[in-house]
Design a protein that fits this description.
8 strands, Chemotaxis protein chec, 6-stranded antiparallel sheet, globular, alpha+beta, about 35% helix
Length: about 150
């Protein structure tokens, strides 16, 4: 599967349905991905859509690092799964987002889809009107972690 790239604004209808942007839908369908997994991001107030195969890879990594026989680690794994929801695109390319996810991410109806590697993030549009990281911090972080 190709990586997702792009920023596309959209609006949810009264039932909470969103059209998956055509550029992302094309990538998903060409890869045979109709099943999507939705989860609130761990660190940010946004939602993350995982193609089914990407989700399975994510779970495999989690399971390999978290010991099911350690109570605290098993609770972390369980919580990660509990916060996820399987979605299917309808024939028009829409997905129905349960209202609790909109509430978790502070989304009303205006959203921005953002392609991030092998996932698609859904943000409240107003949360991305300003940069997530100021220019100086961004430059310093890139220099620190990516510089030679």
């Amino acid at each position: 599967m190709e990586r997702f790239l792009g920023n596309i604004d959209a609006k949810a209808d009264a039932k909470g349905r969103l059209f998956v942007p055509a550029i992302f839908r094309k990538n998903l369908l060409s890869s045979g991905e109709s099943r999507l997994i939705l989860r609130k991001d761990i660190y940010q107030d946004c939602l993350v859509l995982f193609p089914g195969s990407t989700w399975e890879e994510e779970l495999a990594v989690l399971r390999s690092r978290l010991n099911r026989w350690d109570e605290k680690q098993q609770m972390l794994y369980r919580q990660f799964i509990l916060d996820a929801e399987a979605l299917e695109m309808d024939s028009n390319g829409r997905i129905l987002i349960p209202k609790r996810y909109f509430l978790m991410a502070g989304i009303t109806s205006e959203v921005r889809f953002v392609g991030i590697d092998y996932t698609i993030e859904i943000w409240a549009r107003n949360k991305l009107e300003k940069p997530l990281v100021d220019a100086v911090t961004f430059k310093q972080g890139m220099q620190k972690w990516m510089g030679t």
